[in-house]
Design a protein that fits this description.
The relative contact order is 0.13. The chain has 3 helices and 7 strands; from the N terminus they run ααβββββββα. The protein is α+β, with helices and mostly antiparallel strands and 173 residues long. It has helices at 27-39, 50-61, 159-162, and strands at 68-72, 76-82, 91-96, 99-113, 118-132, 143-147, 150-156. This is Molecular chaperone Hsp20. It comes from Bradyrhizobium centrolobii. Residues 59-173 form the SHSP domain.
Length: 173
């Protein structure tokens, strides 16, 4: 019959990642949300939204602009972006230091006057997208068109980049 041996199990102590506390990347967000729920019944609507405004500002920094599609053909790269409600005069495209920048601004103002009321609304928004250009792009021949809210930027390749790939045969030594 085998004898049972009991060995004490010890866990190695972990050193905290930052200072005396363990690093918790989502703790600040959780604290903000917990504070909002805690304050909900006690004058929530009458106090300034300092923490909520800060959270909104931080989230807006992560949004860089409209989604784009980038496609490659034998002769060019094409960037397509849907920009509904914009005019071509509100879009600015620049090429500098090996990068393409697409900027835009949307301004919308509505005003409604009736016998019993007056409503005036204004909405403003800007965006910016930045693309590093590969060396194979001929920056002098970049073209852009805008039709029905869709921006199409064509980045033609250099003649060297359009050449077909050369296959190298491997021979035994």
């Amino acid at each position: 019959m085998a004898t049972e041996t009991k060995v004490p199990v010890t866990k190695p102590s972990r050193a905290p990642a930052v200072g005396s506390e363990t690093w918790r990347p989502f703790q600040a967000l959780r604290n903000e949300i917990d504070q909002i729920f805690d304050d909900f019944g006690s004058g929530f609507w009458n106090r300034p939204f300092r923490s909520l405004a800060r959270l909104e500002r931080d989230l807006s920094k992560s949004i860089s602009g409209p989604a784009v599609d980038v496609a490659e053909s034998d002769k060019a790269y094409e960037i397509t972006a849907e920009l509904p409600g914009l005019d071509e005069k509100n879009i600015n495209i620049t090429v500098a230091n090996g990068a393409l920048t697409i900027k835009g601004e949307k301004r919308e103002e509505t005003e409604e006057k009736k016998k019993d009321y007056y409503v005036s609304e204004r909405r403003y928004g800007t965006f910016e997208r930045y693309f590093t250009l590969p060396d194979s792009v001929n920056a002098d021949k970049i073209e852009a068109t805008f039709k029905n809210g869709v921006l199409m930027v064509t980045l033609p390749k250099t003649e060297e980049a359009q050449k077909p790939a050369k296959t190298i045969n491997v021979r035994a030594a």
